Amino acid sequence: MNIEILKSKIHRVAVTEANIDYIGSITIDEDLMDAANLIAYEKVSVVNLNNGERFDTYVIKGVRGSGVICLNGPAARKALVGDIVIIMSYASMDFQAARDFAPSIIFPDTSTNKLITG
Predict the structure, then answer these.
(1) Residues with catalytic function
(2) List of domains in the chain
(3) Which residue pairs from 31-36 have beta carbons closer than 8 angstroms and sit at least 24 positions apart in sequence?
(4) pLDDT digits (tens, 9 = 90+) for 23-47
(5) pTM of the predicted structure, to 2 decimals
């Protein structure tokens, strides 16, 4: 039996741009993508903490180190610049493998969307 389990999570980042004149997706700083184990065109769920909106889209690589979180196309209507969102992806895996799986979860600084280093 396979189940869906959290694979990747970017917990609390600020939307930096909203571009309605695009075909769709979410652009994410490539540093954040790498840290959260996300790849280009991967399906993600986005939750907006400011207004409760929830939607699915796919990832596009953003400029590394830029802190960009840009909602493109129809998704641009789901958040305002400055809104705080959570971005998650899921994987389907065998139940027993899922018991031992650890998702990649990151907690960027919401004022810069940069990784917090210790």
Answers:
(1) 25, 58
(2) 2-97 (2.40.40.20)
(3) 31/64, 31/65, 31/114, 31/115, 32/69, 32/106, 32/108, 32/113, 32/115, 33/59, 33/61, 33/62, 35/104, 35/106, 35/115, 36/8, 36/9, 36/10, 36/87, 36/104, 36/105, 36/106
(4) 889 999 999 999 999 999 999 999 9
(5) 0.96
